[in-house]
Amino acid sequence: MKTLVAEDVVQELWTGGDEAVRLYVAACAERMAPLFIGLRAGEAGRETDVDLYVAAVGDLWKTDCPLSDSADRLHSLDRFPELQPAEEGITDTADTYAFFACLVLRYALLANSSGNADQAISCGHAVLTAMGMLDQNIAGAAFKADEQRLQSLSASGNAAGLWDASVAAGRERLRAVLSRVARETP
Q1: How far apart are CA 36 and CA 28, in angstroms?
Q2: Do residues 109 and 132 touch, judged by C-beta distance below 8 A?
Q3: Alpha carbon 163 to its chain's center
Q4: How far is the C-alpha of 31 from the C-alpha of 45, rounded, in Å?
Q5: Residues 155, 3, 37, 110: what is their CA dihedral angle, to the nearest 10 degrees?
């Protein structure tokens, strides 16, 4: 499969070891977290899902060892409505970005527990796909280019400033998606 993840990032993930993989996926998940949390918080019956998402993303930043309960979190995440097959597919903007946020967290949890570079690359690919879609739908947007820059930073193994940059990028993404959703709502 051809990936959107830059070749230098792929190489860093393959050679950087388990901790580098865990740092990379933690940062990817952090940048997508506001999309799930912001789009699903306040929805009836989703409180537990939002809590699980928030806790999982926070715990992914503990990169020195794999999460001991990744399998349980994956099992719970797999039951989220966003990851359930639907005949009509996903057509709503908010649902689309919540789906991508869940998919990214799924790959992040898998990569965290295994240290597998391929799963980390899939995580990054999912983020880049979502940001490419966002760019296509917002004139003058450069979310994909910013994500590529942040992925390079994430794969470098240098955590300095990475969390702050990831949080800021995630908030900007949420603002853009909420603006798009507001324009679609009559």
Answers
A1: 13
A2: no
A3: 13
A4: 24
A5: -70
